[in-house]
């Protein structure tokens, strides 16, 4: 038997039940006494010196001496040389006792650690919902809360969501949160953390300069920058545009209902620039838009229902922003004079 490898596999919990039983039976055999020689004794000694294990060796020797009262602790041993062979036999027996006990302890602890790690892995299993361009979905979470996820957006959250109501957001989503005072509902969007108990709010990371817009419709939410204690609270009809490195957090009044028209399939532009319009249309319809010429610095507004075609939207917006367009499948070209 390759004792070292077998012992290592046993201590690491890699042996099957039958193999472990066979190894424990071997440790009680005469052959084991031969193998458990000075090398094993030295290994055990080094382990204790290194402080890797906390074992009451005095107590261990007392247990051994209960079966052999004439044998004393190693530090107190004053036996005649004639009993050296007998002492060696008992020393080997003691080592077998120690190794057997430690191996069994390691085996049990290793199994417990692995089982605990498996339980944690199951608890920490994450779920990600992702929408491509042109897609919008409604996600009902385990606690009954509802998330309306916009195009080109994603949310990531724990499978055990009732116990861990935390979400990572990329893009834009509208949240209708079920009240649970014991488990706050937390959304982290690019370092801006929104905390709520029971409320409805919209978060968008589709803003300029990597800023995050949080708009509150009902209830109350707390906003803070990740890693910072300072926070502000939003009341219904208020919005805040934040980034993790802003020195001050501010809020302002908005028409909050207009901010979630997208959840009803309504496409809305409010004094949008050309760049903003292009970004929204690409995300909404899943197309690619190219710009030719030199556009003027104009803004445009408009509201279009879910049945409105991209061609009609471009016709309306083109009159304000002064462009003509060419459609080639999913590729659109805007031409400016």
Can you tell me about this structure?
Residues 132-222 form the FecR protein domain. Keywords: Membrane, Transmembrane, Transmembrane helix. This is Ferric-dicitrate binding protein FerR, regulates iron transport through sigma-19. It comes from Algoriphagus locisalis. The chain has 337 residues and is an alpha+beta fold. The protein has three domains: 3-123, no CATH class; 126-257, Jelly Rolls; 265-335, Phage tail protein beta-alpha-beta fold, CATH 3.55.50.30. The chain is built from eight helices and 19 strands. The strands form four sheets. It has a seven-stranded mixed β-sheet with strand order 1-4-5-7-8-11-12, with no helix packed on it. It has a seven-stranded antiparallel β-sheet with strand order 2-3-6-9-10-13-14, with no helix packed on it. The radius of gyration is 35 Å and the shape is elongated. Residues 67-86 have low confidence and may be disordered.
